[in-house]
């Protein structure tokens, strides 16, 4: 009877230890308590996703579309005069003053690296004369790229009931934007300084994407945060023959979950990544 009790205790102890190990592994997995929506692609093929087609507010991930349209409509060396509306923008900003003159090139850097709403609005006003007409162009471009669950209401990503997109659509949009060499260059930069054209004022820009310079292989792309959107992130990292694109929407801690998700994608066997055409995401019309 004593023998049986000892054996039972040992068995129970082993079971508890095994359960503890499993729980620890699960707790460390980014897929146990994931963001509200995410999409992970490896070389253009879906690896893992959750609510990737559910509409959510994108916060400053909106600026990916703003930058794309500006690059398609404007030359990088064009001179932008900061508008009153731009100087009054709220939220993340670098402190532009009405009437200051900067190039499209430098304002794009402030928009994509520092997520500056004042720079973003200045570009929208410059490209189309006002933000309202610029938003019309944003939505027209979304339709052309077949972003079927995307609608914009402002250039910067301020919370608004009519502003939404999905992790799926953001992946398509990002791939298109990354085809622009200057876009790809900016989102991979850690820091830079820009100046007004009369050189009286300068602005130091530090990339808000903490993966840049810290996560091996990270080459972009953009962060976004508002009360409604939560913590959002589009990230791309490359190692050897593998490129991973990650979209996170409404995360509790994107800087903890994003590296873990990227690690999982880099460690995944090729067999785990579905290679069928239906799982390949490409913009096919109007791009």
Automatic annotation (TrEMBL):
GO terms for biological process: cell wall organization; peptidoglycan biosynthetic process; proteolysis; regulation of cell shape. Residues 1-19 form the signal peptide. Substrate binds at residue 222. InterPro entries: Beta-lactam/transpept-like, Peptidase_S11, Peptidase_S11_N. Keywords: Carboxypeptidase, Cell shape, Cell wall biogenesis/degradation, Hydrolase, Peptidoglycan synthesis, Protease, Signal. The active site is at residues 60, 63, 115. One of its GO terms (molecular function) is serine-type D-Ala-D-Ala carboxypeptidase activity. Transmembrane segments: none annotated. It comes from the Bacteria. Gene3D superfamilies: DD-peptidase/beta-lactamase superfamily. SUPFAM superfamilies: beta-lactamase/transpeptidase-like. The keyword Protease applies. Residues 29-252 form the Peptidase S11 D-alanyl-D-alanine carboxypeptidase A N-terminal domain. Belongs to the peptidase S11 family. PANTHER family: D-ALANYL-D-ALANINE CARBOXYPEPTIDASE (PTHR21581), D-ALANYL-D-ALANINE CARBOXYPEPTIDASE DACB (PTHR21581:SF33). This is D-alanyl-D-alanine carboxypeptidase/endopeptidase, S11 family. It comes from Citrifermentans bemidjiense (strain ATCC BAA-1014 / DSM 16622 / JCM 12645 / Bem) (Geobacter bemidjiensis).
């Amino acid at each position: 009877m004593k023998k049986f009790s000892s054996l039972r205790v040992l068995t129970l102890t082993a079971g508890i230890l095994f359960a503890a190990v499993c729980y620890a592994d699960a707790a460390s997995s980014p897929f146990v308590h994931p963001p509200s929506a995410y999409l992970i692609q490896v070389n253009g093929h879906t690896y893992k996703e959750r609510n990737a087609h559910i509409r959510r507010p994108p916060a400053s991930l909106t600026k990916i579309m703003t930058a794309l349209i500006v690059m398609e409509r404007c030359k990088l060396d064009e001179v932008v005069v900061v508008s009153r509306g731009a100087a009054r923008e709220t939220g993340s900003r670098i402190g532009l003053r009405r009437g200051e003159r900067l190039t499209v090139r430098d304002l794009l850097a402030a928009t994509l690296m520092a997520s500056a709403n004042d720079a973003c609005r200045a570009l929208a006003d410059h490209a189309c004369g006002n933000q309202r007409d610029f938003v019309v162009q944003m939505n027209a471009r979304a339709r052309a790229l077949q972003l079927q669950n995307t609608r914009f209401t402002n250039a910067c990503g301020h919370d608004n009931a009519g502003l939404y997109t999905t992790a799926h659509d953001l992946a398509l949009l990002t791939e298109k934007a990354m085809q622009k060499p200057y876009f790809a260059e900016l989102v991979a930069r850690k820091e830079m300084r820009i100046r007004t054209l009369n050189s009286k004022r300068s602005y130091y820009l530090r990339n808000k994407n903490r993966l840049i310079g810290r996560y091996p292989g990270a080459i972009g792309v953009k962060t976004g945060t508002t009360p409604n959107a939560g913590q959002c992130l589009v990230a791309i990292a490359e190692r050897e023959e593998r490129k991973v694109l990650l979209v996170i929407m409404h995360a509790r801690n994107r800087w903890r979950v994003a590296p873990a998700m990227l690690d999982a994608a880099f460690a995944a066997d090729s067999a785990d990544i579905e290679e069928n055409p239906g799982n390949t995401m490409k913009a096919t019309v109007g791009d």
